[in-house]
Design a protein that fits this description.
extended; mainly alpha; 167 residues; 2 domains
């Protein structure tokens, strides 16, 4: 199952290699599931991955192909390492922490977030990330700002090449 995270997170992989890896896992898991279903000695509940894990691999593989096809004319925008819940969780963790120092209120409404917090969160993230890039150390921030505007991207495969890679 290590092929699934690497197909999303490894920034050096060409889109065709990403497709190959994720679909390799999908076909392997399908074969494994079929084998368990054919043998009465084993059960899916005891000898197979969870249903969430199985369906996640299937859904991610299909969505990955759709993302490549959608971004075929904009390869520089294809950044699968950003497709996860971690950026959103980090962003809302920052939104909870930008209250004033005297305030103990960490919960907020959607309206309050749009009106007051999002601009402050954006400014906070940009300042700490860019500061780290230039040698300013912030105690709670360790990642260097990734400027992806100039990301070269890879040549995106067409539908025929995607089909060939999957087959």
């Amino acid at each position: 199952m290590q092929f699934v995270p690497s197909s999303y997170l490894d920034k050096q992989l060409h889109p065709e290699e990403r497709i190959y890896r994720i679909w390799f896992v999908v076909f392997s898991v399908r074969l494994w599931r079929y084998w368990i279903c054919c043998d009465k000695m084993y059960t899916l509940s005891e000898n197979f991955v969870t249903l969430n894990c199985y369906l996640s691999a299937e859904i991610n593989a299909h969505c990955f192909v759709l993302a490549i096809l959608e971004l075929s004319d904009r390869p520089e925008d294809f950044k699968p390492w950003h497709i996860s819940s971690q950026p959103a969780e980090s962003y809302f963790r920052s939104a909870r922490s930008v209250s004033s120092s005297g305030s103990t209120k960490v919960n907020f409404t959607a309206r309050e977030c749009f009106v007051t917090r999002f601009a402050r969160v954006d400014a906070h993230i940009a300042l700490t990330a860019k500061g780290a890039k230039y040698g300013l150390n912030f105690l709670r921030f360790t990642r260097v700002f990734e400027d992806t505007r100039n990301h070269p991207g890879f040549a995106m495969p067409g539908i025929e090449q995607i089909n060939k890679t999957i087959m």
